[in-house]
Design goal:
The complex is a heterodimer. Chain A is α+β, with helices and mostly antiparallel strands. Chain A contains nine helices and 20 strands. Chain A has a six-stranded mixed β-sheet, with helices on both faces. A five-stranded antiparallel β-sheet of chain A has the order 13-12-11-14-20. By secondary structure, chain B is mainly α. Chain B has two domains: 1-47; 79-316, MetI-like (MetI-like fold). Chain B is built from twelve helices and two strands; from the N terminus they run αββααααααααααα. Chain B has a two-stranded antiparallel sheet. In chain B, β1 (72-74) and β2 (77-79) form a beta hairpin. The longest helix of chain B is centred in the first third of the chain and has 48 residues, at 2-49. The two termini of chain B are 44 Å apart. The chains are: A alpha+beta, B mainly alpha.
C-alpha cells in the first residue's frame, strides 16, 4: 500500500500534448477514479503511473520514492487491463502464478498466494481452465487475481468492465467495491462511465483534454461542479443548460434573466462580472419544475419516456441546443405535444461564466 | 400431426443435402481432374516402371521384372536399390540435410522475425530486403554461391584469408568434409526468410496487452519469449516446418548446382536422377523415385501425427 503523488506531470507523444500539468495527491488506501470522455488522457495517465509510458516532464512519486525512471516491476504496481490480457495458453492457476514464479518465490508461497487470491475472487473451481473456457466475468476476475496475487502496493484498473454486458458490469462493480473494502489497498481506476466513477470512488478525478477539471468526492462533484464540463459529465440524465445573462447584483446573490424562463434571484456571487454578461444556467433534471402554459415562454414536450419508477420528459430547447430533460417520479401527467413553462428551483441551480467556470454560491461560501 | 411435419422437414433437408453434395463434387471436379493428370498419372507410371527393365534409350521394349530393381539375390550377391550403399548414403545425406537445415532455419527465422517485429526506422525496407534470398530462383542463388565459394577465385576464401581465419583456400564444394555444410549454409541463407515471414505473421497476431501485463509483473523479456511468445507461435512454426521439411526431403537443385553428383552430398532425388538420366536405367531410377516418395510420405505422416499429439497436449482443454 502506498500513496501516489503527481507533480506537474506532462506527457507529449511526438507533437501531441496528451497530459498537461497534472497535479494530484492520492492517499494511501484511497479508491481514485479517473473519468472523462474518450481521448481525455485518462488511460495515458494510468499508464504513466504503471510505467508503461515514460513521463515527459514533471515528477511522479509512489510512497516516498520518485519513480520517473523506474521500470514497472520496481514500482510495485499491479494492473488489470481492459482486454484482461490473460496468457491464452496458460490455465487460470498458471496465469496467476506466472508473475510469482519468476519473482523466484518459494513454491509453497506461490501456491498459498494463488489459492488465497482464488478464494477471495471465487476462482477455486476454475483453476485448471484456460481463459478460452471462461465467461467474460470470470476472465475479469482472473485478470484481477493475477494483479492481486503479487500483492502490489497499488492496483491499477484500465476500464476493466467495459467489455462486459450491463448486468454483469453492475455485479463486478460491486465485487470491486467490496474487494477494496477488504484489501484496503490503494486503487486507481479508469473509466469513461460516470456511474462507475460515482459508485466506486472515494475521490473522482475528472479529466478533459489532458487537464484535471476537478478533483473531489462524488458528492462534491455532483453538488458543486467547478466547471460546466464537470456539471455536464457527472449525473445521468445530464444537467440542462439554459442561456442566461446577468441582470444585477443585489445583496447576497445576483439576478439573472434566463431565456424562456424569465428573471430569477439566485444565491450565486456574480463578483466582478458586469451586468449583461452572458452566463449559462445549469439545472439538473430533478430540479426543473414544469407548469402548463402557452404563449412565447412555453416549451414543447417532444417525448415522454416511462421507466417504471420515474418518467423523463424531453423538451425542445428553443435555442437549437440539446433537448432539455425533466425527471419526476411516475406516474406523470405530462404528454407529448403539451406546452409548458419552466421554473428551475433557485436553491439547486448552477451558474457558469463564459469560460465554463462555476460562480460560487453564497451558501457554499458561508459553509466553507 | 407432428410426425407429418417432421416428415416434411426431413424430406426437404435430404433434398437440400443431396444438392449440396452434388455442388461440392462439381466444384471439386476440375481440381481432381488436373491432379490426376499432373500428379496421379506420372506417379502411377513411375510405380509401373519401377517393376520393369525400362531403359531411357528404348521405352517401347519393356519387360516386367518384379521387384528386381528394389532387391534381388543373384550369384550369392544382393542387387537393387535397397542393396546399394550409395542409395543408403543418399538417404542419410537427405535426412541429415533436412533436419540440420530446417532446424537452423527455424532458429534463425524466429530471430529474424523477432527483429522485424520490433519498431524501428526503415522497418518496411528491411522486411522487403530480408525476403530477397527467398525471391531469387534457387538455380540462380546456388550458382551465385558456387562462384562465391569457388576455391580459387571465390570471395569467401579471399575474405577469410584476408581476415587471417584460414591460411590456405578451402575447396568448399569439392572437399567432402565441407561440402555438406556448404550446401546447408546456402539452403539456410535462402529459406530462412520464408520461416521468418510465417513467424512474423504469427507474432503480429499475438495480443499486445499480454506483453504489457508481463512488463508490469516484472517478468524478464527472455522468459516472456520462452513462456509466452514461443508457445503462442508454435502452431505457425509447425506449419513452416512441414513445408520446409517436404521441400528439404526432396532437395535437388541446391545440391546439384553446388556439388553435382558428388557422393558426399548426394540426396535421394539426385540419386534417382543419376540412375534414370545419366545411367539411362528408367526402371532402376523409378524404383529409387518410388522409395523416395514412400519415405517422404512416411516422414510427413509421422510428423503430422506427432505434431497433432504435441498440439493437443499444449492446446485448449
Amino acid at each position: 500500500m502506498a500513496s501516489v503523488k503527481l507533480d506537474r506531470v506532462n506527457k507529449v507523444f511526438d507533437s501531441t500534448h496528451i497530459i498537461k500539468d497534472v497535479d494530484l495527491d492520492i492517499g494511501d488506501g484511497e479508491f481514485v477514479v479517473f473519468v472523462g470522455p474518450s481521448g481525455c488522457g485518462k488511460s495515458t495517465l494510468l499508464r504513466l503511473i504503471a510505467g508503461l509510458e515514460s513521463i515527459s516532464d514533471g515528477e511522479l512519486s509512489i510512497g516516498e520514492t520518485v519513480v520517473n525512471e523506474l521500470p514497472p516491476r520496481e514500482r510495485g504496481v499491479g494492473m488489470v487491463f481492459q482486454s484482461y490480457a490473460l496468457y491464452p495458453h496458460m490455465t487460470v492457476y498458471e496465469n496467476m502464478a506466472f508473475g510469482l514464479k519468476l519473482a523466484k518465490k518459494a513454491r509453497e508461497t506461490i501456491h498459498e498466494r494463488v489459492m488465497a487470491t482464488a478464494r477471495i475472487l471465487q476462482l477455486e473451481e476454475l483453476l485448471d481452465r484456460k481463459p478460452k473456457a471462461l465467461s467474460g466475468g470470470q476472465r475479469q476476475r482472473v485478470a484481477m487475481g493475477r494483479a492481486m496475487a503479487r500483492e502490489p502496493r497499488i492496483l491499477l484498473f484500465d476500464e476493466p468492465l467495459s467489455n462486459l454486458d450491463a448486468s454483469l458490469r453492475v455485479q463486478m462493480r460491486n465485487e470491486i467495491a467490496r474487494l477494496h473494502n477488504r484489501l484496503g489497498s490503494t486503487m486507481i481506476y479508469v473509466t469513461h462511465d460516470q456511474v462507475e466513477a460515482m459508485t466506486l470512488a472515494d475521490k473522482i478525478v475528472v479529466l478533459n483534454g489532458g487537464r484535471v477539471e476537478q478533483v473531489g468526492s462524488p458528492h462534491e462533484l455532483y453538488q458543486r461542479p467547478a466547471t460546466k464540463f464537470v456539471a455536464g459529465f457527472i449525473g445521468s440524465p445530464t444537467m440542462n443548460f439554459l442561456l442566461a445573462s446577468l441582470a444585477g447584483h443585489p445583496e447576497a446573490g445576483c439576478r439573472v434573466s434566463v431565456e424562456g424562463v424569465g428573471d430569477l434571484a439566485l444565491p450565486q456571487q456574480a463578483g466582478e462580472h458586469a451586468a449583461g454578461t452572458a452566463l449559462s444556467l445549469g439545472v439538473r433534471p430533478e430540479h426543473l419544475r414544469l407548469a402548463e402554459a402557452s404563449g412565447d415562454n412555453a416549451f414543447e414536450i417532444v417525448n415522454v419516456e416511462y421507466l417504471g419508477n420515474e418518467v423523463y420528459v424531453y423538451l425542445d430547447a428553443r435555442d437549437g441546443g440539446p433537448l432539455l430533460i425533466h425527471r419526476s417520479e411516475a406516474p406523470s401527467r405530462w404528454q407529448e405535444g403539451q406546452r409548458v413553462a419552466l421554473s428551475p428551483d433557485p436553491q439547486h441551480v448552477h451558474l457558469f461564466d463564459g469560460e465554463g467556470r462555476a460562480l460560487p454560491a453564497a451558501t457554499a461560501r458561508a459553509a466553507a | 400431426m407432428t410426425s407429418t411435419v417432421n416428415h416434411g422437414a426431413q424430406y426437404r433437408s435430404t433434398k437440400v443435402r443431396r444438392q449440396r453434395v452434388k455442388a461440392a463434387w462439381l466444384f471439386l471436379a476440375p481440381m481432381l481432374v488436373v491432379l490426376t493428370l499432373v500428379a496421379g498419372w506420372p506417379l502411377v507410371r513411375t510405380f509401373y516402371f519401377s517393376f520393369t527393365d525400362a531403359s531411357l534409350s528404348d521405352l517401347s521394349n519393356i519387360f516386367f521384372i518384379g521387384l528386381e530393381n528394389y532387391l534381388v539375390r543373384d550369384d550369392g550377391q544382393w542387387y537393387g536399390v535397397l542393396a546399394d550403399p550409395v542409395w543408403w548414403r543418399s538417404v542419410w545425406n537427405t535426412f541429415f540435410f533436412a533436419i540440420v537445415s530446417v532446424s537452423l532455419e527455424v532458429v534463425f527465422g524466429v530471430i529474424v522475425a523477432l527483429i522485424l517485429n520490433a519498431e524501428f526506422k526503415g522497418r518496411t525496407l528491411v522486411r522487403a530486403a530480408v525476403l530477397i534470398p527467398w525471391a531469387i530462383p534457387t538455380i540462380v542463388s546456388a550458382q551465385m554461391w558456387a562462384w562465391m565459394l569457388n576455391d580459387q577465385f571465390g570471395i569467401i576464401n579471399e575474405l577469410l584469408m584476408t581476415l587471417g581465419i584460414i591460411a590456405d583456400p578451402i575447396a568448399w564444394t569439392a572437399d567432402a568434409s565441407y561440402s555438406m555444410w556448404a550446401v546447408i549454409m546456402v539452403d539456410v541463407w535462402k529459406t530462412t526468410p520464408f520461416v521468418a515471414l510465417l513467424a512474423l505473421a504469427a507474432m503480429q497476431m499475438l495480443p499486445k496487452d499480454c506483453y504489457e501485463a508481463a512488463e508490469v509483473d516484472g517478468i524478464h523479456p527472455v522468459r516472456v519469449f520462452f513462456r509466452v511468445t514461443l508457445p503462442l507461435i508454435t502452431p505457425a512454426l509447425m506449419v513452416a516446418v512441414i513445408f520446409r521439411l517436404l521441400d528439404a526431403l526432396r532437395v535437388f537443385d541446391v545440391i546439384y548446382v553446388l556439388t553435382s553428383n558428388s557422393t558426399s552430398t548426394m540426396s535421394m532425388s539426385i540419386y534417382a536422377r543419376q540412375q534414370l538420366v545419366e545411367f539411362q536405367d528408367v526402371g532402376y531410377g523409378s524404383a529409387a523415385s518410388t522409395l523416395l516418395f514412400l519415405i517422404i510420405a512416411l516422414a510427413t505422416i509421422a510428423y503430422l501425427y506427432l505434431g497433432r499429439k504435441q498440439l493437443n497436449l499444449g492446446g485448449d482443454a
